[in-house]
Amino acid sequence: xxxxISRPKAQAQAFIILGFLALVWGSSFILMKRALIAFPPLYxxxxxxxxxxxxxxxxAWQHRTQIDKRLLKYYAVIGLFGSALPALLFATAQxxxxxxxxxxxxxxxxxxxxxxxxxFFGAKPEWNKILGVAIGFGGAVLLVFAARGDAATSGIxxxxxxxxxxxxxxxxxxxxxxxxxxTSPPILTNSLALGMLGVAYGAILLVLNLIRADAILPQWSxxxxxxxxxxxxxxxxxxSLLGTAFSNVLYVKLIQISSPVFATxxxxxIPIVAIGWGLLDGEIITLLHTVGIVLILSGIFLxxxxxxxx
Length: 310
Prior knowledge:
By secondary structure, the protein is an all-alpha fold. The chain has one domain (about 30-305).
């Protein structure tokens, strides 16, 4: 049976953390939008992972005696699908799609976790969960078409599909952790995964700059003189440290003092915060956006409806 939040102090702490995570993760999309003003998508993704990996390095060192070398490949895979690849997909997509649409499609993540778990990991979902996935993905289809209305999209919806692919990565990541790293301390999992992929991203940037692969990655000098460079760097640092590193630690804490169901309810709150930032930034929310997110959140509700019952 799902455990409840029993102690008043723990209950208050849980709601504070939940609200903070909703604010931070809901703000990640507008932070990414601001970082992209001066930085190319690959730099935004790479620096996000590198900075987060550096911030969490002390935790990896603290838990170094618990590292099982046989699991290193899984930490790398978790880092790839849980952070590195989605960060690049989101940054690339948001060069053509507004932050509100990105946040709405991000809400597909728990549905993707259930779908991939059923297809490839032997999970046997109940009928309400299957219905929830179907409804949620119906909402995603509407959002893909709603992306045609984004000012920067000009009728292109392929970038919206990049966001769907990113949520698939998140869903795969959740299943991989559950299957292969169930007994690994969460803080160790996060710090090692981000650290390993941070090193990989750093190596990629270094090589591309050394060989001057301008067609793939603009040279540093081509955008370091951008008038918005330092502001974009500041937004990128906040995104990395709060939105990726610190928030992951808090999320683990939230699960520990409450329950997985309570913790995942942050999924309902993130789009509200992101849409609020989008409206303040002049983004337009259409009827298709509204219907799409209602369907996705309805799907998430159905998926979680019977969790906690024994």
